[in-house]
Request: fold
Amino acid sequence: MLNLAISLAATAAVFAVGTVVAGHWIAGFAPAILVLLVTYFLLARRTSNRLQAVMEAAGKAAQRQKLDEARRLLEEARPLGRWQFLVESQVEAQLGALDYILRDFKSARPHLEKAFSRNWMAQGMLAAIDFRDGDVEAAAKRMEKVNLFARKEALYWGLYAYLHAESRQPEKALEILGRALKLLPRNEALKGMQQAVSNRKKLRMKDFGDTWYTFFPEQFPMRRAAQQAVQGRGYPMPRR
Reply:
């Protein structure tokens, strides 16, 4: 990536100058390392700030129902991937999420598969796609792979248990919820879900907040979606 290449070039130059001037490589080593760290930090921060600005602008466009504008902004951010590691995977994750909330799961999948493997939200969307395709085993494997990075998130556990509960595997769902409550014993949404699964009652996934609809946008209340669409904000409506 260009940020690293520029930093290494600056480091090599400082090391060479220090070695020639002092007549020993040790004299050039310390300043070279300092230049490497400072240069890379500053360049990486610049790229991160530019990416953050694009993400915020795209998010605001999506909230205003201007989805084509949001997609254009994200596509224009692709060149930043040449400068910094993981930038491209972040852009791909956002493009995938945009297709996903429009319920275009076929288009969302290839973008989400390019997202960073530790991005549990992207992996959760992929797991939900697997679930819709009837492959609960693949969905479960995805969820387990990101457990280390998402285990403190109640929504992660709720989604993981939901996939099994809705696949008529209540015992597995209860096992997952048991693991979750050992880590998050005071979480009311998880407690309520555990009780609902145990009693074979309807799950109240809205207890996890509106972020739940990130994974199942088709469950978002249509009345709320219509009201927000009229107001020119809120949750994007799917294209017909």
About this structure: DSSP finds twelve helices and no strands in the chain. The first helix runs from residue 2 to 22.
